[in-house]
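Below is the record:
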Amino acid sequence: MRGGLEGRDAATPVAPSDSDAGAWSAWLLKLEGISNTLEAQVAAHAGSAVREALATLEREAASNPDSLESILALYLARRRAHFEAEGKAHNDAQCRETVERILARLELAQGEPVPERLEALARAVILAETPERAELLGNELRLQVRQYQQDERARRTDMDDATRWLEVFAAADLPAPLLGRLEAVSAGLARLEAAERVELEAREAAFAAEQEVLQARAAALVLEASLEDLGYQVDSIDETLFSAGGLVHFQRPGWDGHYVRLRANAKNKTFNFNVVRAENKAATSATQARDDLAAEERWCAEFPRLMATLAARGLELNVTRRLEAGEVPVQVVAPERLPDFSTPQARVRKKPAARRFDTP
């Protein structure tokens, strides 16, 4: 083929001069190959190149209307140009739709622009010269968007964690470089390194354990002071009662052998109050049974006041189960296992000093 398609490896073979069927069959096969070549060329060189080629072919056909070669070449070129024009418009619309669908996965905030590298890649998909090229670039755009989503989620996780750690360590003495890094990450200006995250998680665990011990100590002080302020005689409460568990006994003057026992279960975070009687023998007389009932009724009446006092001082105990007086027998405990508040030393109690109770 000559003219506008010269140099494009699409030269049309010369038609046989005789009527040999084999020669004509071979010639037609070559024309079919040319047709396939033209499809690829038209797809890759649409627009002005195609129009120029068509004009050249039309001139050749006009100058030699009886040439089978010119007629076939013109027909093939026109057919490919028509299909190319329709296919190009269809592919452009498809590419735009595909790009919009892929970019919608970014979940950008209102007014937030598409990242420059993704926008450039999206533009390349739309402007691709061939459908094959557009598909290749579209797959790359999908991968880049997925990677961007993963990076963005990790960045937001870093920001949230850094903001939380700044609040957790507000009263702690963090090294200045680490504090500066947290501030930068919280503002979205930097990312946390893996080693930094490990260090911060370890610091947070240690800080939480320290705070738990401090809160347990404060709770023990609040409990002991509250019981004393309400007029009870009380064991010296160990500061680990709320962190390690244990027993506390208290009573009022005049309760004789009756006490209230507080059992703390640190593992389950539960506290049990019950009336006990100092006695070596398990048998209970009718008189003791009446005294036990009176002691329980007295404690049941005073219990709400203790709960209200503790709650007002920041130590709120949630009551999940309450037995009324007389529902179960009073527990008998050997006297040596209970505090003796009757000794002169035990009766001398310091006047409760003004205390400040902060919520643990």
Remarks:
- DSSP finds ten helices and five strands in the chain.
- The first helix runs from residue 21 to 44.
- Strands lie at 233-234, 246-251, 258-265, 270-278, 331-333.
- Residues 255 and 295 are 8 Å apart (CA to CA).
